[in-house]
Write a structure and sequence with these properties.
- One of its GO terms (molecular function) is SNARE binding.
- One of its GO terms (biological process) is intracellular protein transport.
- It is a peripheral membrane protein; Single-pass type IV membrane protein.
- Its main location: membrane.
- Belongs to the syntaxin family.
- The protein is mainly alpha-helical.
- It folds into 2 domains: 223 residues, Methane Monooxygenase Hydroxylase, Chain G, domain 1 (Up-down Bundle), CATH 1.20.58; 40 residues.
- The chain is 87% helix and 0% strand.
- It has 6 helices and no strands.
- Helix 1 runs parallel beside helix 3 and helix 2 runs antiparallel to helix 3.
- The chain is elongated and about 110 Å long.
- About 7% of the residues have low confidence.
Length: 292
């Protein structure tokens, strides 16, 4: 009676443990499903930033190719830049949450396949994000140089010769009045020239403000990606070599099957020539070879 009771208890315990395992597996599956939904959401946000950066480039070209100020295009440019900033901050926040969760699981001793998947996805998203933001930063600095060149040409037209270093100091002063000193504005053309100079100077001021606002976030992400670089490269190397190994194994298997089939045919021919096979055995081997 005691043995039966003990057996029942063990069976019940085993059943409970099985239920616990099932609950854990279901919870992990749900967690990973939600994780990949988050990954897709972040990827979509990064793609949106990349698309907006391309639009920013178009607006820059449109502004610089227009001989007069275009308030509508500038307003659209400001909206694009604000959108990029908002989306970039959201992406950075979400990546930071994933990073913190990974670090927490690592510190608790968890090292399963799901954790490796999360680390790889986080690293891939971070690198893509930094690539897009690097392109945006380059777009801004390129536009700054083009605006600076436009100011230089307009000053030349107005008869004011300014060296590159002096021009840089004038821009950094933040005072548009420094560009009008000593310039006669008694004609419409001269007034338009000065208006264009002030507009380009204002653009540069906005650019520098935008670059400063994103600088800390950009540097934080760049340092993270740099530290992840070796790990990602190693993963990519292993995946590539695993594929090569599988391809080679498949090819070797095909060759082995071909060699086996060829060997059987040679063996059959030898037996026939030597007259060692009975008719029934000959028929059986012939059918076997045909199937191959």
């Amino acid at each position: 009676m005691t043995k039966d009771r003990l057996g029942a208890l063990k069976a019940a315990q085993s059943e409970d443990e099985g239920d616990d395992d099932m609950h854990m597996d279901a919870a992990n599956a749900q967690f990973m499903e939600e994780f990949f939904e988050q990954v897709e959401e972040i990827r979509g946000s990064v793609d949106l930033i990349a698309s907006n950066v391309e639009e920013v480039k178009k607006k820059h070209s449109a502004i610089l190719s227009n001989p007069v100020n275009d308030p509508k295009t500038k307003e659209e440019l400001d909206e694009l830049m604000a959108s990029i900033k908002r989306t970039a901050n959201k992406v950075r926040g979400k990546l930071k949450l994933i990073e913190n969760a990974i670090e927490h699981d690592e510190s608790s001793g968890s090292a399963n396949a799901d954790l490796r998947i999360r680390k790889t996805q986080h690293s891939t998203l971070s690198r893509r994000f930094v690539e897009v933001m690097t392109d945006y930063n380059k777009t801004q600095t390129d536009y700054r140089e083009r605006c600076k060149g436009r100011i230089q040409r307009q000053l030349d037209i107005a008869g004011k010769q300014v060296g590159d270093e002096d021009l840089e100091e004038m821009i950094e002063s933040g005072n548009p009045g420094v560009f009008t000193q000593g310039i006669i504005t008694d004609t419409q053309q001269a007034k338009q020239t000065l208006a264009d100079i002030e507009a380009r100077h204002n653009d540069i001021m906005k650019l520098e403000s935008s670059i400063r606002e994103l600088h800390d976030m950009f540097m934080d992400m760049a340092m993270l990606v740099e530290s992840q670089g070796e790990m990602v490269d190693r993963i990519e190397y292993n995946v590539e070599h695993a594929k090569e190994f599988v391809d080679r194994a498949v090819a070797d298997t095909k060759k082995a099957v071909q060699y086996q089939s060829k060997a059987r045919r040679v063996s059959l021919l030898s037996y026939i020539l030597n007259g060692n096979l009975e008719p029934q055995a000959l028929k059986s081997m012939r059918n076997s070879v045909r199937k191959e």
